Amino acid sequence: MEFHIVRSDLLNELQLMMGVIEKKNTMPILANICIKAENNQLILQATDLEVGIISSCPAQVLEPGEITVHAKNLQDMLNTFSDAQVSFSMNEGTMLDLVCGSAQFSIETMSTQDFPSIPECEFASAIEFQVGFFKDCITKVLFSVSTDPHKYALNGSLLKVNSGELSLVSTDGHRMSVVNKALGPDFQDLDIIIPRKTLLELQKSLKTSDPEEGFQIDFVENRIFFKIGPRVLFSRLIDGKFPDYHKAIPVGNDKAIVIDRVKLFEIVRRKSVLSSDKSKLVRLSFSPGEMVVVLKNAERGESIDKLAIEYEMEAVDVGFNVDYLLEYLKNMSVEKIEINIKDHASQGLFQLVNEEDTGLDYKHIIMPMRLTG
């Protein structure tokens, strides 16, 4: 095997694939990337047996072949080179030689026979979404996905299509994010749970693509496949039952407060500096035209801020976990948000002001914390 390739082309693809590379050393071959050189391109494959990526990049192939190499070692070597083009060739043994200008490396290889077989998908019955739209949906739900291994069904996001309406939902039991959007009658019904890691890797690939372009989603048995330009991301689905999220959406939250998101984000970020594992409560006190935000920590101190708001009803206080509130505010991009509450013991329903501009119906719910004093 011998080929020449633009260093940045290979590095860009490697960077996107590193997220699925197995890092626990349970199977040494899973720390490798499979490289196939043919037809003046490289076919690159990586998988941890749950999630995988297939990609390609142009190359000048002098002698076709295939091999696997340790992905992190290859990435580190390429990062030390400065010239634009790198030459790869197999020597008489099992070493792969890399030459870039006057620099040379040799890297140990393993046979592709030991590399896991990669599932295939023809995308014959694929559904298509716009890159920018779906990337925005992932951003709005990913931070609410549970990372608790004991909550298996919550370790991913529900993707549901019913009667032409898309729902993307995530929850960790303390907060919940729900995205709804009308798609039209041509979309087939779905009810699946996509793992958190898969959403993270999909988000990375979508960020490198034109937001106006489309990408495809299809299914083969218990796997989901995403085709984004020259890349295919595939993953096993979570085999579990997602809870009935409709029951967790509060009704009767009659007090609506409109707030500048960026200003509140800066205030809550300051509060987070004083928070600790034992002191996560941030108190929001609403009164006509003004809110007061307070976080007290007996060991670290106290922080108080005031902010002008759009609100004309009676005064009400509510407490939330400062980390949950901060994550929500950080992941939104609108100028203003609306907080809907009922009383100090009610869930907070967070919505986006002027979200009709995006075509999304987005709701975020945070459970309250008990107020003292």
Automatic annotation (TrEMBL):
GO cellular component annotations of the record: cytoplasm; DNA polymerase III complex
NCBIfam families xref list: dnan
Alphabetized PANTHER family for the sequence: BETA SLIDING CLAMP, DNA POLYMERASE III SUBUNIT BETA
All copies of domain DNA polymerase III beta sliding clamp central, residue ranges: 133-244
Record CDD domains: beta_clamp (cd00140)
DNA polymerase III beta sliding clamp N-terminal domain: residues covered: 1-119
Predominant location: cytoplasm
Subcellular location: Cytoplasm
Description of how the protein assembles with itself and partners: Forms a ring-shaped head-to-tail homodimer around DNA.
UniProt keywords, alphabetically: Cytoplasm, DNA replication, DNA-binding, DNA-directed DNA polymerase, Nucleotidyltransferase, Transferase
Lineage: Bacteria, Pseudomonadati, Acidobacteriota, Holophagae, Acanthopleuribacterales
Recorded superkingdom: Bacteria
InterPro entries: DNA_clamp_sf, DNA_polIII_beta, DNA_polIII_beta_C, DNA_polIII_beta_cen, DNA_polIII_beta_N
Family that this chain belongs to: Belongs to the beta sliding clamp family.
Protein name in the entry: Beta sliding clamp
Gene name for this UniProt entry: dnaN
Species, as recorded: Acanthopleuribacter pedis
SUPFAM superfamilies for the chain: DNA clamp
Any Pfam family hit: DNA_pol3_beta_3
GO biological process: DNA strand elongation involved in DNA replication
Domain annotation DNA polymerase III beta sliding clamp C-terminal: ranges: 247-370
Function: Confers DNA tethering and processivity to DNA polymerases and other proteins. Acts as a clamp, forming a ring around DNA (a reaction catalyzed by the clamp-loading complex) which diffuses in an ATP-independent manner freely and bidirectionally along dsDNA. Initially characterized for its ability to contact the catalytic subunit of DNA polymerase III (Pol III), a complex, multichain enzyme responsible for most of the replicative synthesis in bacteria; Pol III exhibits 3'-5' exonuclease proofreading activity.
Entry's Gene Ontology molecular function annotations: 3'-5' exonuclease activity; DNA binding; DNA-directed DNA polymerase activity
